[in-house]
Amino acid sequence: MSYTKESFYAPAPMTERGHSVRLTADPSGTQFVYASGKTIIIRSLTDLTQATEYTGHTQATTMARFSPSGYYVASGDVQGNVRIWDAVGEEQRLKSEFRPISERVNDIAWDSESQRVMAVGAGNGRFGHVFLFDSGNTVGSVEGHAATINACTMRQQRPFRAATCSDDGTCVFYHGAPYRLNKVLSEHTGFVHDVRYAPSDEYFASAGADGRLFLYDGKTGELVRQVAKGAAEQDAHKGSIFALAWSPDSRYVVTAGGDGTCRFWDVAEDRLAHTVHVAQGARAPEHQQVGVLWTPAAIVSLSLSGDINELSMQDDAPVRVVTGHQRPITAAAMTGGQQGQQQLYTASYDGKLCRWDWTQDDTRGVARRVEGAKSGVQVDAAAAAGQDHVALAYMDGTLCTVASDGAAMAQAAGLGSGARSLAVNASGTCVAALTDDTLVAVRQGQRTRLSPPDTTSPASAVAFDQHSGVLALGFMDMMVRMYTLDAELALVPAGRIISGHQREPTALAFSPDGRWLASGDAQGKIIATDVAPGDGAAAMPPRRWGRHTARIYALAWAPDSVRAASASLDGHVYVWSTAAATTARPVDIPAAHVGGVRAVFFPRASTVVSAGADGGVKVWTV
């Protein structure tokens, strides 16, 4: 059996307050590339729900840039490594790897021949280097700065030139090749965050923390002027400029500011042409604009929150805002309803809660941030609550519910501490939660401690059968026991005990028809047990599935109750079958998510959805 990746809903770019982010495009201008965790994301500018990823780095990535030829991408990480890899085809073969500086890579530039690479950033005495992309041989030196270099840019026609900018408040102009310091430019009065050559190479511009934009001659490096120096005070940025980008015709420069605006400057007429307020009237740090990109296909800016904003010179607000997770997804849930009508909720450890609409083809895969979510508090566990609600357990012990339209968020009760596992009955009236120190049930806002009468072993996982209301509990003694809840929320043994695990169960899931119970453990082993054969039929033998090599995080059943999917810390997703005649190996989706798969769903007969520590959501056809 095989699989195909239908869609990849990419994580948002990683941001850090006070630092600019590099958004760069391929030569065609239809794709852009950015860093997110240990992954480099290549994303379509015309359809932001379509993306690919590069996962070759072992450290957190910082930025990436296409070569002018379009054949290669150079990407950097926090340890000063630069990897140059094939951007054509799916194999993404590594061409070369170097460590030109000892710390974080802030920017990379290519010359027009796709041969020479300049990498700059932080380091111990050396803040940048120029080298050949294949051999690593030195073709110049980066000098003249006394602090971290934030950006670099190279002229794309002869005579070759380059410029860098730094936290020391200066820009440095270079002649090449080989590249050598020509002059130091000291017009700025604070950190200089960005420097960029125009596509025409006639000018380059710099922008910094002083909120000023300077224009220089592309050949000589001489100052031409401060852009719109005489502009009215209300036209200027009220704070730092973190990034700039030129229009394809080299007439305009757009700047991204810490005041939450993007401003379009007409360089030819030396005036402010237009201002886009990303968040009208809001000055919260999350709305600071820290990156910007202008291609023939689109103009996009990046908010500190990770939101990608599509801009237009004809609109005062973003045309569209695309959100996503910047941090690992820690919990997810999918509401019920008819097949294809589900709503997917994902939560990351920074507290961001996103709702993914699955009701329409034109909106499927577009995330919307749920307003009212507890910002900054990790969601430990999530579970569907009936057909149209989701229950969320926060690390601070709060239990909340949110409606499937994302419009209402309400606190249901306090759990006392964070939850490791969460389950809700079919009607959504009873929540079972496994906290750090106890097992509790919540009904009508009232919390009741549950004490299994037949064991003293601590519980490790919970699940409700949506048909019978039976509650399955995994325990540290490696057993799975089944119970019913009486009117007083007391546990009554239902008679079935499942053994065979070598480690404690960490995930449980009943099939939609209630016949099968899948239990996965901390060792990566799964047992599917026929717990309700029905009509007096004999129970089928247990199915034992053991290909995972690490803890099982989640299990999900297909609508037909025959196939099941598993998610694990090992990063794999497997699709299994309980059919008696099945002799084929399970569907193996290797390396589905960097850092582990935290959630998996089976919304349709041939569709599996996974979410992981890379902050992304993927849709697979199996």
TrEMBL record:
GO terms for biological process: actin filament depolymerization. One of its GO terms (cellular component) is cortical actin cytoskeleton. WD repeats lie at residues 54-86, 185-226, 234-275, 545-586, 590-622. Coiled coil: none annotated. GO terms for molecular function: actin filament binding. InterPro entries: Quino_amine_DH_bsu, Quinoprotein_ADH-like_sf, WD40/YVTN_repeat-like_dom_sf, WD40_repeat_CS, WD40_rpt. This is WD40 repeat-like protein.
